[in-house]
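Write out this protein's structure.
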Amino acid sequence: MKVHLGTDHAGFDFKEVLKGHLAEAGHEVVDHGALEYDALDDYPAFCIAAAQAVVEDRAAGVEALGVVIGGSGNGEQMAANLVSGARTALAWNPEIAKLARQHNDAQIVAVGARQHPEDEALAIVDAFLAEPFSGDERHARRIAIMADYEEQGPAAL
């Protein structure tokens, strides 16, 4: 699977560990930055680039997911969700990561690197990447409602 990564300085060290972990598991890893540690970097561009790449790959039929990383993961999730068609979920444990895939068909997970020990953060990402969307009609219907709103605004409701 192709996995797109975006991070800020707070998630930089974990991103570097994650890159090796994912490559070792056989994933194709694409790093959208930050490419070096800079305590004054601006994460939105990195997270938006990762989310845009996930949306574009999936539209082209490429099996792709994304991971955005920060100190808390909150801002990174917000930035990634600005991309039309992106569904990014902040996950704080493996079960939430699985549910984001099962019920919401999230394509991107946000992780707070300062909120978890390294092994726990890796477990969150692994759970997210391994879990498929359930395809349940009720979940698909709800996702379609959100997609319609994203495209049409209040008229969709």
